């Protein structure tokens, strides 16, 4: 079936145009449709209430992407909206660049059988699917797959967990644990789960892995299956389809051909080499204190067996199988969890010295993934500390202190490349207390959050954070990104994300957020918080009104810093630093001796790799338009490049060699890891973060701060990260990315 849109609206229209004007224009558009077309549009159901035409549009829209830049539109196709949802549908769909919505059958359909599509990511556990449909669509899913018996539903969730685990291995092209048998198990699970509408990415992964093993016949088989499925799911122009055509025609000329060492496998009839190429361990001491590796013990390892129901739901809700473009994904490079089994059959005394911020390539063979654990004993200032590599947790581990050792260190192991990075475990709630007053904020490595208050039950495309602002601050976040809607009629500022409220359970307000920040600063007076404030939403108040409300209703000299000058840390401890992404009222431009009010971000670069803020205070990476034709890998590479630029700067204080009193202060480097696509469940903030966050952890641990190792090969100065603005940190207690960013501030301590 092919359909054309009845109504097409750019998504930014609802935040850029007054709401009453939008309603008026949409009514004109719908009223001018042919009679039958108008009736079919108005016959559609809405779920949000309010203006009927807008409600119908938001409830029944598909993505229509026109061009590669800023081209996302809400597209309404009345014929397609008649199709009901099913978590195991019999149809797949896509919208092409010619504004045509194509719907294809993905399996045989019996006479009288209902035609269905999936409204959500169907590769999630039942409880997650029902929660998502309830929150975003207004009803809990009651399709046949969601109404299975508890026994059958639990079995399905177990299969989804198995898919997630296997996919993690197959997506890591450096993994030594994958095998042809694993590939076939992966595809068997897809068939058992009846995922015919969403199988192209799995076929692609199977084709690539067989080609990695040098098995041309099987690689061609799955490449052809990927092409056939991809044509139905994504269309002929999809990146996977193009790539698989190349692999199917010329497997031995493809970049993936025969680059993976073979593992002996009972199901594999080809002669295989039993030798696995293993790399040696690299250790990075990213602390301000010297370390010495003294003892290496090698244990047999095993995967933890006590997987809880919550673990199943968590892993199933983060499946990455439904990837519109497998080449956009980032490999799962952070180590898998393994626990020690039995006694150490191999113990070796060594003496490997690591100076502060030194990287050392050792001759110690890394642990065989999934089968071994190394226990490393370090000594620092006469005290000993231990780390298991890999650990029994997927998160970082605090190194064990032996006999009352005083310091705290965090160890993060990057399996790809065999790199162990050791950071100082700063007290995250008060980490700024370790830094001298004289440093400007631009010299610091500062973790931040994007759309910081959006942790509530909301549309999945609206929610960007796993935990609230108080928890974010307590775990090291010092940059908050806040969007508010301004009314013409009152002084209340409502927290929003684009045109949408941040909670489905009721409005949340800026005043409550400020009170939370005040409470944190009262308890942690050494800290300073940069707050970016931008006007969005459907309110008809202006930027100028917002600036006056901030001054008249919220500003007080004790808690706010509004000088339009980049401050030193000592000037702003205990304060909120206002970074305004709005235009000031003319009266405020006379503040601070006529220099204005607040750090000026009113001229902000949009959707950029390295844009300059108009006032010159910041360089920004905020490439956020992600879809099937825009590579997520491109976003991650832009973020790495901005980290490299930030690391190049050098801050010289009085007494430092090369200090100049008149030297300009380096601007902020603001680096957004966030991206989103309202229409594509695989490009909602949570899914992008699941790829971007581990990739940036890997970069910060293994490449950041080494001259020539960044994407552009730049020299390294102070190795600051700049402000790194994140989504979905703190989920299930995982603050590794924040710890990595904060940890790089230890480099400043070496300057004294």
Automatic annotation (TrEMBL):
One of its GO terms (molecular function) is phosphoric diester hydrolase activity. Residues 5-120 form the SET domain. Signal peptide: none annotated. GO terms for biological process: lipid metabolic process. Pfam families: PI-PLC-X, SET. PANTHER family: SET DOMAIN-CONTAINING PROTEIN, SET DOMAIN-CONTAINING PROTEIN 5. This is SET domain-containing protein.
């Amino acid at each position: 079936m092919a359909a054309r849109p009845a109504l097409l609206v750019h998504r930014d229209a609802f935040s850029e145009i007054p709401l009453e004007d939008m309603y008026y224009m949409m009514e004109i558009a719908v009223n001018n449709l042919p009679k039958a077309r108008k009736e079919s549009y108005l016959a559609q159901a809405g779920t949000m209430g309010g203006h009927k035409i807008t409600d119908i549009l938001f409830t029944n829209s598909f993505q229509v992407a026109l061009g590669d830049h800023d081209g996302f539109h809400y597209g309404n196709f009345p014929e397609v909206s008649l199709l009901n949802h099913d978590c195991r549908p019999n149809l797949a769909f896509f919208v092409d660049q010619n504004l045509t919505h194509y719907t294809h059958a993905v399996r045989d359909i019996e006479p009288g059988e209902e035609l269905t599509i999936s409204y959500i990511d169907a590769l999630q556990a039942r409880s997650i699917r029902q929660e998502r449909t309830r929150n975003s669509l207004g009803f809990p899913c009651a399709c046949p797959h969601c109404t299975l018996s508890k026994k059958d539903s639990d079995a399905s969730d177990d299969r989804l967990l198995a898919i997630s685990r296997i996919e993690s291995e197959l997506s890591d092209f450096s993994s030594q644990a994958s095998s042809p048998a694993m590939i076939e198990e992966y595809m068997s699970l897809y068939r058992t789960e009846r995922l015919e509408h969403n199988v192209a990415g799995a076929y692609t992964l199977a084709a690539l892995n067989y080609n990695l093993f040098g098995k041309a016949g099987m690689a061609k088989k799955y490449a052809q299956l990927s092409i056939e499925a991809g044509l139905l799911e994504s269309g002929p122009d999809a990146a996977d389809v193009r790539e698989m055509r190349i692999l199917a025609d010329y497997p031995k000329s493809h970049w993936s051909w025969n680059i993976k060492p073979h593992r002996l496998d009972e199901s594999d009839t080809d002669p295989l080499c039993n030798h696995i190429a293993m790399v040696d361990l690299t250790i990075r001491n990213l602390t301000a204190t010297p370390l010495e590796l003294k003892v290496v013990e090698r244990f047999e390892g095993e995967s933890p067996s006590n997987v809880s129901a919550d673990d199943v739901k968590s892993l199933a809700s983060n499946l990455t199988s439904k990837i519109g473009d497998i080449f956009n994904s980032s490999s799962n490079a952070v180590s898998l969890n393994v626990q020690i089994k039995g006694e150490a059959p191999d113990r070796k005394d060594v003496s490997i010295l690591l100076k502060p911020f030194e990287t050392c390539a050792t001759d110690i063979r890394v642990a065989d993934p999934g089968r071994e654990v190394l226990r490393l004993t370090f000594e620092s200032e006469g005290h000993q500390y231990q780390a298991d590599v890999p650990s029994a947790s997927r998160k970082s581990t605090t190194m064990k202190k032996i006999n009352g050792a005083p310091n705290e260190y965090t160890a993060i192991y990057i399996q790809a490349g065999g790199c162990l990075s050791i950071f100082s475990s700063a007290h995250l709630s008060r980490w700024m207390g370790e830094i001298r007053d004289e440093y400007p904020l631009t010299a610091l490595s500062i973790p931040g959050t994007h759309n910081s208050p959006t942790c509530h039950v909301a549309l999945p495309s609206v929610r960007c954070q796993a935990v609230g602002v108080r928890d974010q601050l307590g775990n090291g976040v010092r940059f908050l990104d806040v969007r508010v809607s301004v009314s013409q009629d009152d002084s209340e500022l409502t927290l929003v994300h684009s045109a949408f409220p941040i909670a489905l359970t009721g409005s949340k307000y800026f005043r409550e957020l400020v009170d939370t920040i005040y409470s944190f600063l009262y308890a942690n007076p050494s800290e300073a918080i940069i707050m970016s404030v931008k006007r969005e939403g459907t309110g008809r108040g202006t930027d100028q009104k917002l600036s006056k409300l901030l001054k008249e209703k919220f500003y007080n000299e004790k808690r706010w810093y509004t000088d339009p000058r980049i401050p030193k840390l000592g000037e702003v401890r205990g304060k909120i630093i206002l970074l305004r992404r709005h235009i000031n009222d003319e009266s405020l431009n006379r503040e601070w001796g006529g220099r204005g009010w607040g750090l000026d971000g009113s001229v902000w670069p949009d959707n950029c790799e390295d844009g300059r803020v108009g006032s010159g205070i910041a360089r920004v990476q905020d490439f956020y338009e992600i879809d099937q034709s825009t590579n997520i890998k491109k976003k991650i590479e832009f973020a790495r490049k901005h980290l490299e630029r930030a690391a190049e700067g050098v801050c010289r204080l009085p007494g430092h060699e090369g200090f100049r009193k008149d030297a300009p202060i380096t601007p902020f480097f603001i680096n957004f890891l966030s991206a989103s696509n309202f229409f594509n469940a695989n490009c909602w903030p949570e899914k992008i973060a699941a790829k971007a966050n581990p990739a940036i952890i890997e970069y910060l641990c293994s490449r950041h701060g080494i001259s020539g190792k960044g994407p552009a090969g730049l020299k390294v100065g102070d190795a600051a990260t700049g402000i790194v603005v994140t989504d979905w940190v703190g989920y299930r207690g995982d603050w590794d990315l924040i710890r990595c960013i904060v940890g790089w501030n230890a480099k400043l301590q070496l300057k004294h």
